[in-house]
Design brief:
Helix content: 55-70%
Strand content: 5-15%
Structural class: mainly alpha
Shape: elongated
């Protein structure tokens, strides 16, 4: 089956038609990773709020956003995967097949947080993950990134 998607000539991600193992079960693994990462961020924010003698609870939403942004950006910049993604055996790659640098990690995290802030954007992103050949969400499409299975990587 051929797709009508136009990809750059220097596309370095595996082809979903000839190397489907790189994208097998990626949407489910992303959901698992998201749950794990959300628990890590929530637990960290809760602990910080407790350590501030409860003052942090007044700013809990802001605390969650800040810790989430720092957590995702740092972990994506270091290994191209959050702790949840590592446990689910997936990692994010650029259009050239490279691991994320700090700028790409920050942009991807910003895109993720914007999509989480708007319900319809998040639904659109989920639909794209479930229907696009590389299981890419909206932020992935905008940045040319994709999540791949680590076990399939050689």
């Amino acid at each position: 089956m051929s797709h009508t998607y136009a990809y750059p000539a220097d596309w370095g991600l595996p082809d979903p038609d000839t190397q489907a193992e790189f994208y097998a079960d990626v949407p489910v693994k992303r959901l698992i990773a998201w749950v794990i990462d959300s628990l890590i961020v929530f637990a960290t924010a809760f602990l910080i709020a407790l350590l501030t003698v409860g003052v942090g609870f007044f700013f809990f939403g802001f605390l969650l956003l800040t810790i989430g942004f720092v957590y995702r950006t740092v972990t994506l910049a270091n290994r191209s995967a959050t702790f949840g993604m590592r446990l689910a055996s997936i990692e994010l790659r650029t259009a050239r097949g490279e691991r994320f640098d700090l700028a790409t990690a920050a942009l991807h995290t910003l895109g993720y947080q914007v999509s989480m802030a708007f319900f319809l954007v998040q639904i659109g992103s989920i639909v794209l993950m479930l229907t696009s050949p590389r299981a890419q969400g909206l932020t992935d499409h905008m940045l040319g990134t994709a999540a791949i299975n680590v076990a399939a990587r050689s």
